[in-house]
DNA sequence: GCCAACGTTGGC
DNA sequence: GCCAACGTTGGC
């Protein structure tokens, strides 16, 4: 899951009293579908920092709740307000995640690009625009291993 | 700030 | 349903 650390970083997640956060503001259908259809409580999550000084994977979280209705879609004051959505039929479903750990150093994108075993990693494809994407067991293992060296 | 790679919108 | 125009994302 991607986030801009200037807006919300893994440190912000770790600083929450319960170390949990609803992943609101996702307004891309593909990204939503991954959260709505594929995530299960307990699934591990890689937290990726984008559009910042050190772009890359910053640490780990886990899914703590699924089928969460994104509250910002009903808030006219919110940047993520969606007038076409309704409480009866909410359009934007998300998850809540819980902090797990922060890597000693961010695993930089430049390093990720050099790793073997990431042929199926979506981050390195399609212009890298998806804010939520699946990670295979194999890719996950390669990435965590590389981050823990 | 630039630019490629998308996704979305709306006219037809 | 097609497709041009437009908007957004995100690395650099």
Description:
- The chain has about 150 residues and is α+β, with helices and mostly antiparallel strands.
- Helix content is about 20%, strand content about 30%.
- It has four helices and five strands; from the N terminus they run βαβαβββαα.
- A five-stranded mixed beta sheet has the order 1-3-4-5-2.
- Strand 3 (about 45-50) and strand 4 (about 55-70) form a beta hairpin.
- It is globular.
- It binds a DNA duplex (12 and 12 nucleotides) through loops.
List strands and helices in order, with pairings:
Layout: E1 2-3, H1 10-15, E2 20-22, H2 29-38, E3 44-49, E4 56-69, E5 93-108, H3 109-112, H4 137-147
Parallel strand pairs: 1-3
Antiparallel strand pairs: 2-5, 3-4, 4-5
The structure holds a DNA duplex (12 and 12 nucleotides).
Radius of gyration, whole Å: 15 Å
Fraction of residues in H or I helices: 10-25%
Low-confidence stretches: none
In DSSP terms (H or I, runs of 4 or more residues), the helix count works out at: 4
Main sheet record: 5 strands, mixed
- Average pLDDT figure: 94
What is the number of beta strands?
5
Span between termini = 22 Å
Strand content: 25-35%
Strand order of the largest sheet: 1-3-4-5-2
Global shape = globular
Helix/strand-derived class?
A: alpha+beta
What's the helix-strand series? EHEHEEEHH
């Amino acid at each position: 899951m991607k986030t801009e650390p200037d807006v919300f970083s893994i440190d912000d997640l770790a600083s929450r009293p319960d170390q949990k956060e609803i992943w609101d503001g996702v307004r891309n259908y593909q990204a939503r579908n991954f959260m709505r259809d594929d995530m299960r409580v307990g699934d591990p999550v890689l937290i990726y920092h984008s559009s910042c000084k050190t772009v890359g994977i910053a640490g780990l979280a886990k899914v703590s709740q699924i089928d969460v209705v994104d509250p910002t879609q009903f808030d006219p004051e919110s940047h993520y307000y969606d007038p076409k959505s309704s409480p009866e039929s909410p359009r934007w479903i998300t998850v809540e995640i819980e902090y797990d750990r922060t890597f000693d150093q961010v695993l930089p994108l430049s390093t990720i690009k050099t790793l073997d075993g990431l042929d199926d990693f979506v981050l390195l494809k399609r212009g890298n625009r998806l804010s939520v994407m699946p990670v295979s067991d194999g890719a996950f293992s390669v990435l965590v291993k590389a981050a823990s060296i």
